[in-house]
Amino acid sequence: MAMLRGLDHYVEVVAEDFGGRYFVTGFHGVGYVGWIAVRHLVEKLGAKRIGYVLTRHMQPFVSVKGGIVLPYELYRAGDAVFLLTNVPLSKRDSTLVPLYLAEKVAGSFEESVFIGGLDSRRREGEEELRIAPTSAYLERHPEVGEKYKVIEEKLGIVGPLAVFLAVLEARGAPGVALLPYAAIERPDPKAAAKAVEVIGEMLGVEVDVKELIEEGEMVEKTVEEIERKIRESAREREAPPYYI
Length: 244
Fold this sequence. Notes:
It contains seven helices and 13 strands. It is α/β, with parallel strands linked by helices.
């Protein structure tokens, strides 16, 4: 096991083989798109856990599934390594973990793919996704900039994805964030399905997203039902009283 330490031992990466062609991750941002998509990819590709990330301020939570499931884990499937954050990054980790990892990723992987979500209220027409590429990524894949629109400058990106992209841009490393339009008020598996489809094309693998789409439709129906009941309740409160 190779152990990488950084930032005064604040972050520690323990992994069998931290390197390869693709580094892929996403977080609990808009619609939980990144986390849902990475979790699905790890499961459907039969990825093997190769390590984990430990920090002084990681979330104090683990679960059990054939052993202990850590907050931040590393998985490999073929040429790709996935960082799966089983719980949201703590406030301090949201900057320091991607800052440390991005430096390692820039020198250990050919390309990086990040998954986030974009507020669906900003959707234009029928487009499903926008991208945020580093300069090096666009130089290597000019066709991607023609296929997908780059996120508008005025929107900006915040959180762990912003840190990753900033470091990779500074180091001249290829990386791109996939930002499907997603609901901001709830988990959005359908948006995650779109990201998974695009990543499947990038990795040259086919990943079934049927479960995500069905899960997304179920969530939408539940939300619609709740909203319908709220509207009915509001109308009842506004209705004039009946007298006998």
